[in-house]
Amino acid sequence: QVQLVESGGGLVQPGGSLRLSCTASRNIFSIYAMGWYRQAPGEQRELVARITSGGITNYADSVKGRFTISRDNAKNTMYLQMNSLKPDDTAIYYCNAHRVTVTRDDDYWGQGTQVTVSS
After folding, report:
1. What is the pLDDT of residue 95?
2. Using CB atoms within 10 A of its CB, is residue 103 exposed (0-12), middle (13-18) or buried (19+)?
3. For residues 117, 11, 78 and 1, what is the CA-based torsion angle, rounded to 10 degrees?
4. Are 57 and 51 in contact (CB under 8 A)?
5. What are phi and psi of 87, to 5 degrees?
6. pLDDT of residue 86
7. At 36, is the pLDDT very low, low, confident or very high (cuts 50, 70, 90)?
8. Which of 46, 55, 87, 109 has CA 20 to 30 A from 64's CA?
9. What is the pLDDT of residue 56?
10. Which tens digit of pLDDT belongs to each residue from 45-86?
């Protein structure tokens, strides 16, 4: 089992910045792909950014150039630096850990943290 705890959400004005954190209960980054997802009211959950166990990153087109995903293996913590925030970025942001092996498909989620972009 893996527990994921997000923090860092809040209310920010358009154009502002926030940094989200996701701390895992144990060292998993070398074997799990980690990701940030978000879900706005009435919308489906969508991938925001992802980092593989090998460190390869990818981003949703809507956040490219504004958001950066990173991780600190020593702290078991993943980050999402969000700059130039827009009202459309308002959503609950979730941390995810995923690993597929021959015999298992492990998928863990955090509880979510609210990000609101408004003036």
Report:
1. 97
2. exposed
3. -110
4. yes
5. -55, -30
6. 98
7. very high
8. 109
9. 96
10. 999 999 999 999 999 999 999 999 999 999 999 999 999 999
Task: Give the pLDDT band of residue 114 (cuts 50, 70, 90).
Answer: very high
Token digits for 106? Answer: 């492990």
The residue whose two tokens read 């980092």 is 51
20, 71 contact by CB (below 8 A): no
| Closest C-alpha to 25, from 1, 59, 56, 55 | 1
DSSP 52-118: -TT--EEE-TTTTTTEEEEEEGGGTEEEEEE-S--GGG-EEEEEEEEEE-SS-EEEEE---EEEEE-
Residues found in the chain: 119
